[in-house]
Amino acid sequence: DAGVIQSPRHEVTEMGQEVTLRCKPISGHDYLFWYRQTMMRGLELLIYFNNNVPIDDSGMPEDRFSAKMPNASFSTLKIQPSEPRDSAVYFCASSRTSGYQETQYFGPGTRLLVL
Amino acid sequence: QQPVQSPQAVILREGEDAVINCSSSKALYSVHWYRQKHGEAPVFLMILLKGGEQKGHEKISASFNEKKQQSSLYLTASQLSYSGTYFCGQAAGNKLTFGGGTRVLVKP
Fold first, then answer.
1. How far is CA B106 from the centre of its chain?
2. Under an 8 A CB cutoff, do A104 and B94 touch?
3. Does A34 contact chain B (CB < 8 Å)?
4. Cβ contact A101–B55 (<8 Å)
5. Dist CA A30 CA A49 (whole Å)
6. Which DSSP string corresponds to A44-94?
7. CA–CA dist B28, A71 (Å, integer)
8. Is residue B20 within 8 Å of residue B12, measured between CB atoms?
9. What's the pLDDT score for residue B93?
10. pLDDT given at position B95
11. Which of B92, B94, B99 sits opposite A55 (nearest CB)?
């Protein structure tokens, strides 16, 4: 079975530009999570969806970040305008259901560099 | 508030043992362990549940002390493939909050 798919794998952009990261969760998984990983802050949850509905976006750093899930097989994380401090690895993960017994499966990540 | 992991880093020779600890200030219902190799995504290792149930498939064992709100991951007879950064995650509702990670380097 295909795992979580993310694109692009690498993105280099200039400050002020719009960046869109894409994710395809594992088929049949009802939960989708967006994480950001940096050396300073570690692995932090930005937002998660259940059945395409955003449930908790308390980790989204500011209004420049937005996320959507138009259908069960596709989600986007958008940064507009981007800033150098947004440079990080962004992971998408999915799980079959929720709760403390469920495993999350991570995608390969998008390495974002904002110049 | 994220769980606290210790040590932050450990260097082992192949065949040696190590213990990674994870402590939380919150009541834990489960602890999740992941390993991340350099440049790759975190990969699930195991889940430890209240009551002692353990779900996982690696040759790496772990324990969960609910009263102390602590979990420990045991790397026994370490192999080169054990190198990477280990994260514990505490589950609250539908969310996982990860610790800062423990870097493990296994040398030949």
1. 16
2. no
3. no
4. yes
5. 8
6. EEEEEEETTEEEE-TT--STTEEEEEEETTEEEEEESS--GGG-EEEEEEE
7. 33
8. no
9. 77
10. 85
11. B94
Cβ pair B13, B105 in contact under 8 A: no
By DSSP bridging, strand A10-13 and strand A110-114 are: parallel
Q: Nearest CA to B67 among B105, B11, B24, B14? A: B24
Residues of chain A with pLDDT under 50: none
The token duo for B46 is 């195991």
Is B29's pLDDT higher than 60? yes
- Among positive and negative, which fits the CA dihedral B55, B57, B58, B61? positive
Q: How far is Cα A50 from Cα B18, in angstroms, rounded to an integer? A: 38
Q: How far apart are CA B74 and CA B100, in angstroms?
A: 18
State whether B41 and A43 contact (CB < 8 Å): no
**Does pLDDT of B89 surpass 60?**
yes
Look up residue A81 and give its two tokens: 């305008």
E runs forming strands in B1-108: 4-6, 9-13, 18-23, 30-36, 42-49, 54-56, 61-65, 70-75, 84-92, 95-98, 102-107
Residue A5 dihedral angles phi and psi, to the nearest 5°: -110, 130
Contact criterion met (CB below 8 Å) for A88 and B17: no
With contact defined as beta carbons under 8 Å apart, do B26 and B69 qualify?
A: yes
Determine the Cα–Cα distance for residues B48 and A52; give it in Å rounded to an integer.
28
Written as six digits, the tokens of A40 are 């300073």
